[in-house]
Design a protein that fits this description.
Blueprint: E1 9-14, H1 18-27, E2 36-41, H2 49-57, E3 62-68, H3 78-95, E4 103-108, H4 113-130
Parallel strand pairs: 1-2, 1-3, 3-4
Helix pairs in contact: 1-4
This protein binds FE2/S2 (inorganic) cluster (FES).
FE2/S2 (inorganic) cluster (FES) binds next to strand 3 and helix 3.
Length: about 150
Amino acid sequence: MAKQYPLKIIAFTCYNCAYAAADLAGSMRLSYHPAVSIVGIPCTGAVEPAVILNAFEQGIDGVFVAGCLDGECHYKTGNLHARERVRQLRGDLERIGLEPERLEMFQLSAAMGSRFAELVNEFVERIYTLGPSPVRPGLDCGGRKK
Ligand code: FES
């Protein structure tokens, strides 16, 4: 495992799938990193780009959006819009000097509790490898302590 430091990750999870998968992972007593704050939402299509960018602006180290599988979004195409939004935002992050890998989109069903735990742990490992967000308060632009 890469060098560890206090992590801050936000997960926007759809109540109809990924949020339920997170719940299932808990019921199955599967562990995933506690630094991930799970925010339940009615559909990933409702996550505004400004909300994600604001999280990065506040120094959050990583964000993922987790929605329904293709064809299973309760609002038909919310997950597809979210996936495209995440793709575009990754480009925006790169343009402002943040690694696009700090933002990800996952698609799950409510029954995928163990997959949820796996994805979270893989994402956490990725963020550890990238290092703390250079935007984090108290760090200079190279990610070093001021
Ligand atoms: Fe789950 Fe739209 S209802 S992503």
